[in-house]
UniProtKB/TrEMBL annotation:
Residues 68-156 form the PA domain. The keyword Glycoprotein applies. This is PA domain-containing protein. Pfam families: PA. The keyword Metal-binding does not apply. It comes from Cognatiluteimonas sedimenti. Keywords: Glycoprotein, Signal.
Length: 322
């Protein structure tokens, strides 16, 4: 690539992908079906667009978000920011409200849209950039779904209102956070974010991944490293393979599998931890049994794996003091 081509790629959100064979295979095992925010009409702006989700209200789905878009208005200051009760509630009722970012918290905008009868909320950013970040805030009284869209899309919608319809669609043949060939997307926002652009998987990945640029509360990194090991393997790292062992006893549990599940590594680490804390062999076995029960309850060990692990655990441990 030429320098200008690299510069263009650095801002080409959604179109730069990681082509490693292992990561592509892992994406097919891990990523959810693709969920897209779609403008369905008018044809001049129809298409799928990036969006940011809200930390409040219900989870967005095709069942709860869709319909006609109406620009919300109020009678104070910036008349489309929704920081005061909406003055066109009759038009808003039963439709998706479009409001501008700025002046007040996102939760206030959502409540004002909800009180006007909106079935959902679009918050258009007030600065250029892609992808749009999420909507922060907490308010358990908010019952309508809300998302954030780019300033550019917000302006495009306003230019052709009324007549804009939107919705969410699920395509089970494609992967969330991957391109149409199943290759995981890299995070290439516009503007460039130093230290994050090109160094992480895209924030659109679902479920969330360790290699995204932000920590997410849905990560279960104690047992699932998602497609991060796949990326490391593609770039030349050597992963610990084979079965996990407890003091030389083979448990039959993969140290790490093709989907980034590290149950075996977790077993080895837990065994060492239990050994370090147990004053006698019985306490070690009890510690491992408690661990086994937690993993079984979480569906992370099969019955056969649990039996084989405990068989190994019973053979080792500190000498009994009884």
């Amino acid at each position: 690539m030429t320098v200008p081509e690299r510069q263009a790629s650095a801002l080409n959100y959604g179109n730069v992908v990681f082509t490693g064979a292992s990561a592509t295979a892992g994406a097919g095992l891990i990523l959810d079906p693709r969920t897209s925010f779609r403008v369905t009409a008018p044809g001049s702006i129809a298409g799928d667009y990036a969006y940011g989700t809200a930390s409040f209200g219900p989870v967005i789905s095709p069942d709860n978000f869709g319909g006609s878009v109406v620009l919300g208005t109020d009678d104070v200051g910036a008349s489309n920011d929704g920081c005061e009760p909406l003055t066109n509630a009759t038009a808003i009722a039963g439709n998706i409200a479009l409001l501008d970012r700025g002046t007040c918290n996102f939760t206030i905008k959502a409540l004002n849209a909800q009180n006007a009868g909106a079935t959902g909320l679009l918050v258009a950013d007030n600065v250029p950039g892609n992808p749009p970040p999420g909507l922060g805030g907490t308010d358990p009284s908010i019952t309508i779904p809300a998302i954030r869209i780019t300033q550019a899309l917000g302006n495009s919608m306003k230019a052709v209102l009324p007549g804009v319809t939107v919705g969410f669609v699920i395509d089970p043949s494609e992967l969330q956070g991957a391109d149409d060939d199943g290759r995981p997307r890299l995070y290439m926002p516009d503007p460039v974010q130093g230290g994050s652009s090109g160094s992480h998987y895209d924030t659109a990945l679902a479920p969330n991944a360790l290699m995204e640029p932000a920590i997410n509360d849905s990560l279960f990194a104690a047992v699932n490293l998602d497609i991060t090991p796949n990326l490391l393997q593609d770039t030349g790292w050597t992963l610990n393979g084979g079965d996990a062992t407890i003091e030389g006893c083979d448990t039959g549990i993969d140290v790490v599998d093709d989907a980034g599940i590290i149950i075996g590594a977790n077993v080895e680490a837990t065994s060492k931890l239990c050994l370090s804390k147990a004053p006698r062999r019985g306490a070690y076995v009890a510690c491992m049994a408690a661990y086994k029960n937690r993993m079984r309850a979480s569906g992370l060990l099969t019955g056969r794996q649990a039996l084989r692990m405990m068989s190994c655990a019973i053979k080792v441990g500190k000498p009994s003091k009884q």
